[in-house]
Structure formats: structure tokens, C-alpha cells
Amino acid sequence: MTTADELIALVRSYNPVTRDALIRDAYAFGEEMHSGQFRKSGEPYFMHPVAVAVILAKQQMDDATIVTALLHDTIEDTRASFSMVSERFGREIAELVDGVTKLTNLQLSSTRTKQAENFRKLFMATSRDLRVTLVKLADRLHNMRTIRSMRPEKQAQKARETMEIYAPLAGRMGMQWMREELEDLSFQVLNPEARNSIIRRFIMLQKEAGDVVERITTDMRVELDRAGIRADLFGRAKKPYSIWRKMQEKDQGFSRLSDIYGFRVITDSEADAYRVLGVIHQRWRAVPGRFKDYISQPKSNGYRSIHTTVSGRDGKRVEVQIRTREMHEVAETGVAAHWSYRDGLRVENRFAVDPARWIAQLTERLETGHDDEDFLEAVKLEMYQDQVFCFTPKGEVIKLPRGATPIDFAFAIHTRIGSACVGAKVDGLRVPLWTRLKNGQSVEIITADGQRPQASWIEIAVTGRAKAAIRRSLREEDRERFVKLGSELIRVAFENVGRRSTDKALRTAAKTLGLDSATELLARLGSADLTTREVVEALYPELVAHGDAQEIAQERAVAGLAAGQSFRRAPCCQPVPGERIVGITFRGQGVVIHAIDCPALAHYEEQPERWVDLRWQEGTHAAVNTVSLDLTLTNDAGVLGRICTLIGEQSANISDMTFLDRKPDFYRILVDIDLRDAEHLHRVMTALEAESHVSSIERHRDPSRALPQSQPQHQASSAPAEG
């Protein structure tokens, strides 16, 4: 473990006027608070905060960040309190430590809505001081470096979380080196076979072809010297995860993948950077479509560089990045450049962007009335994608995520323009609205009076702003229809408990549920954002609690269908209430409901227009949902009768029984049972599994019974079909 003196010496190497007494005091305080605590590896726990501080010191961070790293787990895991830390180290450091604690406690892998709220809190916290996020990223990096001491399932959970959240966050904040290391450490846990295979291929390639990096570096050095350009030159093979990702994206094996080497040229000036580009393109053939000029169009986190890919020796593609020393400093340290010290002074780098600015702008943009779903979608898109820059006919630059379409472009200009969009021209040519925009294109939006956003635009748009505006317009357009449907739903629900849905009752229910009006309540009922059970329970909890509410009518068992639309359960997967479902439409034949994991859904992947987002109504369902169970029983007298009795004791009805196999010592049967919901199914299977004469039991699903992909079916009834 690094000692206090060693840590202070490391900080003093870039900040001679560091407050060494403050760091020493924090070291002693942290060591005292964590005394007696140990990591899973058996090492003293305090070695972890010290290692986090060392990571940040190597990024030349300020004293407050180093002290926060040493104390980042004290408020959460020891007897130390916010006030104790504040009194001893000052309010700034106490708030930083508290911020890291709050980020640590966010459940980033919970349900979708909670995750959206967590992202909202994360952005609100980091917009105040991004050093909180820097400490958290360093904390995650050290935990991933030492992850082998955890249980295998915990390793997999942390690695997935790192790959999905922390690695992209590090990249978005300009810390590409950290992103690559986090990805590679996660890759080592999640797919060690693939990683080891790529490393073995590299070793074999080096044996066969020699040191390719050294040969290409020498060739480039000769060309730069000949042109009289002074520059530093570095080359390396790309990280295993980066190569594996390219193999997946291009669906190519390692032997066919050529773009596996990267080179970096660091120049003294911008002019030299462009001269280097000319020298390289004169000597080697440039690969079309692989040139990016981030110097003239820098990324929002301050990243500047020229990227080009050329065909080198033996036709091998190599990527070359060209930038100045100042640009390289920002590219290497990302947001840390904003707080970096050198010789006791804050580093003045004209390319360093205050990272709090883009987070504050993002937070402000996403806080304008979006619901949690919209917020989460927008945050992920804004954070985890690169950007494209397109131009309006007047030459104004519009910045969009990569993959954006003319619809995103239109809404980025103004919601009114987006809503009235009927077409688009890209570089003077009419294009479909689903066209993916590219850097530098000029886009003209064609509008028409009376045009409204279409539901299909949700799938075309990629930005959170466009999707939120489209959903908002669709909700307003459908509001009247939802209100009418909600009125009918609540009327039936109230009648089922012997009550009347009067205006006063609805206003009272709306107030109880925190809604603005009875109309809002009805609209939410009609759009399936609210269930009738919730409304009834808000007014008459005793009726719901005592089970007086009657069974849900079969024709109303599913929420999300259009008015008058019929449905049936798919016989292949036999979904039951309580399970996640999706609907597939058949023209003139209603909707067929599948379980979300049904293999038959693969047949409809290329027909997204037929998919319907559905869910079961909450409440008590009738026991009419047939499920097939595959049972293997001992061949003894009275066993079959005992099994039938067990099923009956669980208030379930046997609708069919088929013998699949019969042997002297056992037989196998297929039993069709009518059930209410998934909970009912679980109770039946648990009771059967506990029976000593049942050697095996499993739910039977038959993909061969899936309905044909496009062949018309017989007329559907309004009730769920039996299995």
C-alpha cells in the first residue's frame, strides 16, 4: 500500500505548493476510520481509497480531489459523518465526499423508471461539481483492477454495469484511456475466452509477420524527417475489446480484420498537424469515408484531433491520429485537464472545456417537462453517442447524435418545424425521413400546414428531444379518445364494486392520486398509464383489500389494445397474467399475444409495424388461461389420482391430459391446466414439485404451434383462446 509520504511526493511532483499537511491528515483520518475493515482479498480496506487517490494524482488533480479520494468511503462505511468531515476538512471536501456516497448508492441497474430517476439525480449532482464523478470513475477503475477477489456472479454484475455505464461515461468525459481499460477489464470477466483468443492471434501474427508496429513507425518517421516536420510518433495494437467489437460489428474473423493497429502523431502546431496529414496521404492511400477532422469541428468535451485511415504495408489498414501537444493533453486527461496542476499552478490549456458546462446544458435541456422514460432515453443517447454536425440552408450548424435523421434535425431547429415536417432535402436531394445524416451535410426541412407528428416517427427519431416532442403531440392528439375510453373503463370498474363513477368521485380520486383533474385521471386510464384497480383502491381501499372486487372480464384482460380490437393467446408460449407480453397483429384477425421471450417472435423482427406494446390488467383474472405442464411420475398405483387431487386443491382445473411415454417404472404426461395468472401457476408447480412421486416437472412450450407468420387465421374471439 502506498504510504502517506509516497502519495504526497507523487502530488508534489506536479504541484510543489500542495497542502501536504491536509493530505497527511486525510490519510491518517481515513486509515483510522477504516481500521479493522478488510477487502474480499483479505487486504486492509484502506488500501482501496489510497489506490483511488494515486489514480487521480497521476491525472495531476487538485488537493481537494485527492483528499476526497482518501475519504470517499468514510461517510458511507464508517462512523464518520458529514459534519465530522466538514469540521475537519472543510465544507467543499465534505460535499464532494457526500456526492460520491450518493452516486455509489444509486441503483443504476434497477427498473427502467428508477434508472431514469437515478440518471436525473446523477446529472444534477455532477452539474454542481464534476470532481464527484472523477472520483467515482477512479473508484470503479480500481475495483475492476481487483475484481478477481469477488464471487463470479458479483464479478459479472459489476463488469456489465461497468461496460454499460461507467466506461461510456469515462469516454464521454474525454478520458479515453480509462474507457479502454474499463472495457478491457470488463471484457476479461464477461468473455475471457474471446479475449484470450485475440491475444493468442496477436502473438501468432507477430511471430509470422514480425513487429508490424515498429516497421510502420519507422516508415512514418522517414517520411516526416524528409518533410522536415518535428513530431513525436507512437504506435500500438488496439485493445482486445476494441478488436472484438470490430469483429462483431463487421461480422468478420480476426484474419480478415485489417484495422487493428493505431498510430498517433504529436506535433508542435496546428499547421504541422495538417502538414503531417498531407505527408501521410501522399505516401499511403487513404481509405474513403474514414477521415474525420475534429480540429475544425471539436467534440463537446474539448477533444481535437485529425483521424484518418490508410492502407499500409501489405494492404494492412492503420488508423492515424494527428494532434498538437495541447490537444493531446486534453485527449489524454479529458475533464481532468480542467483541474490539472503543473508546477503549483492550474494548467492553462486553451482547448480544455469546462465539462460542467455541457452537463449543465444537458440537464437544463432535459429538465423541461420530460417524463422519466424520455429523460433516460435522451440521457443515454446524448451521453453515449458521438456527434454529427449538419448545416441549415443558412449555414447554421446543428449538432446531433450519430445516427440522427432529418426528423431529429427538424426538432433540433424548433418543435414547430419538427411537428410540421413532411419531407427533407440533403445536399439538395430529396431523401426519406429515415435517412441517417452524416457530418457536413446540408439539410433542408420541408413543412406543410396541418401536418402532425406520426406514430411511426418514434422509431425513426433517435434524439430524446424529438422523441419527447412526438410523444407529447401524440398524447395530446389521442387525449380525447383516451378520456372516452377511461370513462367506460372506470364505469365498469365502479359497478363491479357496487359504486357509481360520479364526477365528485372522480375528482376525489384524482386529488388522492395527485392528479390535476378528473379529466387527467380518465386520460391516464384510457392510455393504460393508470389502472382501474388503483383508482378504486384510492377511494375504497377496504373493498380491494377484502377481495370484494370482482374478476376482470375476459375481454378486458389486456391493456393497450385499440378500441374494439380482439386478441388471443399464442398457443406456442401460452402467456398468463403477470408475465411480460407483446402483441402481433394479423390483418382483420386481431392481435395474438406472445410472452416477451417467445422464440416465435423472431419471425416478426423484420415487421415492426405489426408489434403492439401490451400488458395485463392489474387485478384478479378468471382461471381460463390454459398452461401445459410436462410431468414425469413414478408408475405406482394411485399416483395419477393423487396428482389430480393436488391440482384441484390449488383451485386449478385440468382441461386435458395426454400420455407422452409409458415405462414399467415411470410414465410421462402432458397436463393442460386452467389458471388465473403467473402466481397461480407457481403455486401449482410448487405443490407438484413437492410431491415425492413427481420426478420432474416443467412448463411445456411448443414452438411448432406458433401461428403462421403471415397466413390469415380464423376469426378471433374477444376472449383469450384456450391452449
Automatic annotation (TrEMBL):
<dbReference type="Pfam" id="PF19296">
    <property type="entry name" value="RelA_AH_RIS"/>
</dbReference>
<dbReference type="Pfam" id="PF13328">
    <property type="entry name" value="HD_4"/>
</dbReference>
<dbReference type="GO" id="GO:0008893">
    <property type="term" value="F:guanosine-3',5'-bis(diphosphate) 3'-diphosphatase activity"/>
</dbReference>
<dbReference type="GO" id="GO:0008728">
    <property type="term" value="F:GTP diphosphokinase activity"/>
</dbReference>
<dbReference type="GO" id="GO:0015949">
    <property type="term" value="P:nucleobase-containing small molecule interconversion"/>
</dbReference>
<comment type="similarity">
    <text>Belongs to the relA/spoT family.</text>
</comment>
<dbReference type="InterPro" id="IPR045865">
    <property type="entry name" value="ACT-like_dom_sf"/>
</dbReference>
<dbReference type="GO" id="GO:0042594">
    <property type="term" value="P:response to starvation"/>
</dbReference>
<dbReference type="InterPro" id="IPR006674">
    <property type="entry name" value="HD_domain"/>
</dbReference>
<dbReference type="InterPro" id="IPR004095">
    <property type="entry name" value="TGS"/>
</dbReference>
<dbReference type="InterPro" id="IPR043519">
    <property type="entry name" value="NT_sf"/>
</dbReference>
<comment type="function">
    <text>In eubacteria ppGpp (guanosine 3'-diphosphate 5'-diphosphate) is a mediator of the stringent response that coordinates a variety of cellular activities in response to changes in nutritional abundance.</text>
</comment>
<protein>
    <recommendedName>
        <fullName>GTP pyrophosphokinase rsh</fullName>
        <ecNumber>2.7.6.5</ecNumber>
    </recommendedName>
</protein>
<dbReference type="InterPro" id="IPR003607">
    <property type="entry name" value="HD/PDEase_dom"/>
</dbReference>
<dbReference type="InterPro" id="IPR045600">
    <property type="entry name" value="RelA/SpoT_AH_RIS"/>
</dbReference>
<feature type="compositionally biased region" description="Basic and acidic residues">
    <location>
        <begin position="692"/>
        <end position="704"/>
    </location>
</feature>
<feature type="domain" description="HD">
    <location>
        <begin position="45"/>
        <end position="144"/>
    </location>
</feature>
<feature type="domain" description="TGS">
    <location>
        <begin position="382"/>
        <end position="447"/>
    </location>
</feature>
<dbReference type="InterPro" id="IPR012676">
    <property type="entry name" value="TGS-like"/>
</dbReference>
<dbReference type="InterPro" id="IPR033655">
    <property type="entry name" value="TGS_RelA/SpoT"/>
</dbReference>
<dbReference type="InterPro" id="IPR012675">
    <property type="entry name" value="Beta-grasp_dom_sf"/>
</dbReference>
<dbReference type="Pfam" id="PF13291">
    <property type="entry name" value="ACT_4"/>
</dbReference>
<feature type="compositionally biased region" description="Low complexity">
    <location>
        <begin position="708"/>
        <end position="723"/>
    </location>
</feature>
<dbReference type="GO" id="GO:0015969">
    <property type="term" value="P:guanosine tetraphosphate metabolic process"/>
</dbReference>
<feature type="domain" description="ACT">
    <location>
        <begin position="628"/>
        <end position="702"/>
    </location>
</feature>
<dbReference type="InterPro" id="IPR004811">
    <property type="entry name" value="RelA/Spo_fam"/>
</dbReference>
<dbReference type="InterPro" id="IPR007685">
    <property type="entry name" value="RelA_SpoT"/>
</dbReference>
<dbReference type="Pfam" id="PF02824">
    <property type="entry name" value="TGS"/>
</dbReference>
<feature type="region of interest" description="Disordered">
    <location>
        <begin position="692"/>
        <end position="723"/>
    </location>
</feature>
<dbReference type="GO" id="GO:0005886">
    <property type="term" value="C:plasma membrane"/>
</dbReference>
<dbReference type="InterPro" id="IPR002912">
    <property type="entry name" value="ACT_dom"/>
</dbReference>
<dbReference type="Pfam" id="PF04607">
    <property type="entry name" value="RelA_SpoT"/>
</dbReference>
